[in-house]
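INSTRUCTION: Work out how this chain folds

Token vocabulary: learned, describes local backbone geometry

RECORD BEGINS BELOW THIS LINE
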Amino acid sequence: MKKPFLAIALAIVLQFCLQPGAVAGFAEGASAYNARNYALALKEITPLARAGNADAQHLMGLMYYMGRGVTRDYKQAFAWHHKAALQGKSDAQYVVGAMYYTGNAVPQDQKHAVTWFRKAAEQGHAEAQHALGLMYRYHVAGLPQDSVLAYMLWNLAAAGGNRNAADQRAAIAKRMSQEQIEEAQALSRTWKPGTSLPTASRTGGEG
């Protein structure tokens, strides 16, 4: 049976969420971005991004990715997101993973995609958890096909607000035993953001 095409799209939100304790200048830049005053946003965040502020680097990456206030440039988008991702910014880690997965501005590399999705997912990033769940479900990038881990990840992602994950979880549950579902739910309950996600389950491996 032919595996369904695994589509992982960038979930770029129109509104940029301000982080608690935002540094001076960044709050103004993010507010300007949300108000679609991209010229002002660029003026405010550029020096912060160049100085190493991860939030500003992520927002700069979004502006280059979307072509807002600057000419659309995916290479610049990747470069800025990568800088923020290396500092642990989960939104940026997710974008880097998605760009590696699709081969957008960088050579396509599914293993790199898994690495970055996992980093973001382990911080509780719902979209990254959803993407990683798809990879376990469909045996992508060398990951084992594991319905329990897929269910667990979609359970976490659904709790984080990802509606697609809730639909995926409902669909795969129909193919799982009660024992598998119970294991997946137990894994979901015991996992805490900031800790490693399991890489194998007891009952969910498939041939």
